[in-house]
Amino acid sequence: MKIEKVEVLVSSPDRNFVTLRITTDDGLVGLGDGTLNGRELAVASYLENHVAALLIGRDAHQIEDTWQYLYRGAYWRRGPVTMAAIAAVDVALWDIKAKAANMPLYQLLGGASRTGVRAYGHASGLDVPELFDSIRKHQALGYKAIRIQTGVPGLGSVYGVASSPTVGGKRYDYEPARRTALPVEETWDTAAYLRHVPTVFEAVRNEFGPELTLLHDGHHRMTPIQAAKLGKSLEPYDLFWLEDCTPAENQEALRLVRQHTVTPLAIGEIFNTVWDYQTLITEQLIDYVRSAVTHTGGISALKKILEFAAQYQIKSGIHGPTDISPVGMAAAMHLDLAIHNFGIQEYMQHGDATNEVFIQSFSFEDGYLHPGEQAGLGVTYNDEAASKFEYQGAYLPVNRLKDGTVHDW
Ligand code: GCO
Ligand code: MG
């Protein structure tokens, strides 16, 4: 089964997506997601100019060999652009292999280890009443696990909550890569945040009781000692996890956080290989691996990271905001269903335009996702719909402290 055609598809239904479509000489088609939010065209160019020609004529069944060929063959290893490009190829080949076997992909990954994949959604509000409203809406959709992000008094737009309406009058429906010529700038104050967040969690627990699973994302903004303080102050509210509490390029930083708090820690959405996790996993400094299939070299590589993590009782929490395309989400769901050390899956729902371009077979019922029983990933790409949505440059925001210093966003 030889690879005959490789197409890099860039479209922008609700936001920009980079999709790789591989066709074999016997007519099987596989899709892979290579979307890197705010830097999409770098991956599209990497695939188009440096990968596509290398794939033509290769045996589509040789997934591991192709992965190693692209990773080692480039000489320049790792990095988000390279690993997103490799992920797109890897997932497209898994899609093809599963279609050739006439099975849903999870069957090839070992078969189902559970009946459904527990998912969490994103609730947010500028203030507590607005947040409660958002939590109730998520509960009405079936979510049993909900991430809580809140505005901070004295600050405007912050990560997770926009200060003003965005798309169609609705606040922060999609991750905030804005279609502006320059990135939007936000203002940040960690001390104000650390004072405010525990009061919000107290209010949420009082209103919604002890059983609702709650999560929170610190989005890389704290130093280790600040993160330790937050983890400690959130202990009474029994979080499922505190995510990305520090930037974590320095893995040793998490030792300090861990010494001070029993709030579970999740990290990794900006990591791209197992080497970013080495210390974190072997020293059991985290509880959940947050990588996306799309940014970590695909199913082949993320499965290995998760198997390594499993030996240290660390579970999965695969990244799934709307900047992961439905192809990347489907790949995550097949993996979630198959692995033993599944934790939870992030699931922000895509908009109507995205769902028109990516026709999907997965379901979300009563808080649980299931990838469906179609052969392969279960996603097809609608070229006609995609042609209505041309690429538009978009940037993630830049974050500054009140005195103008650039901070982590
Ligand atoms: C999450 C992430 C996202 C990122 C986004 C950037 O936990 O879902 O933090 O919200 O900000 O993926 O493109
Ligand atoms: Mg995050």
Q: Write down the CATH class of the largest domain.
A: Alpha Beta
What would CATH call the architecture of the largest domain?
Alpha-Beta Barrel
Number of helices: 13
End-to-end separation: 45 Å
Secondary-structure map with pairings?
Layout: E1 3-11, E2 17-24, E3 29-33, H1 40-55, H2 63-73, H3 80-101, H4 105-108, E4 117-125, H5 128-141, E5 145-150, E6 185-188, H6 190-208, E7 213-217, H7 224-234, E8 241-243, H8 253-260, E9 265-267, H9 278-282, E10 288-289, H10 298-310, E11 315-318, H11 326-338, E12 344-346, H12 352-357, E13 358-360, E14 363-365, E15 368-370, E16 379-381, H13 383-386, E17 398-401, E18 406-407
Parallel strand pairs: 4-5, 4-12, 5-7, 6-17, 7-8, 8-9, 9-10, 10-11, 11-12
Antiparallel strand pairs: 1-2, 2-3, 4-15, 13-16, 14-15, 17-18
Helix pairs in contact: 1-3, 2-3, 3-10, 6-7, 7-8
Bound molecules: D-gluconic acid and magnesium ion.
Structure notes:
The protein is an alpha/beta fold and 409 residues long. The chain has 2 domains: 3-105, Enolase-like, domain 1 (2-Layer Sandwich); 117-372, TIM Barrel (Alpha-Beta Barrel), CATH 3.20.20. Helices cover 36% and strands 19% of the residues. It contains 13 helices and 18 strands. The chain has helices at residues 40-55, 63-73, 80-101, 105-108, 128-141, 190-208, 224-234, 253-260, 278-282, 298-310, 326-338, 352-357, 383-386, and strands spanning 3-11, 17-24, 29-33, 117-125, 145-150, 185-188, 213-217, 241-243, 265-267, 288-289, 315-318, 344-346, 358-360, 363-365, 368-370, 379-381, 398-401, 406-407. An 8-stranded parallel beta barrel has the order 4-5-7-8-9-10-11-12, surrounded by 4 helices. The protein has a 3-stranded antiparallel β-sheet with strand order 1-2-3. The longest helix has 22 residues, at 80-101. The chain binds D-gluconic acid and magnesium ion. Residues 37, 175, 217, 219, 269, 319, 321, 323, 346, 396 line the site of D-gluconic acid.
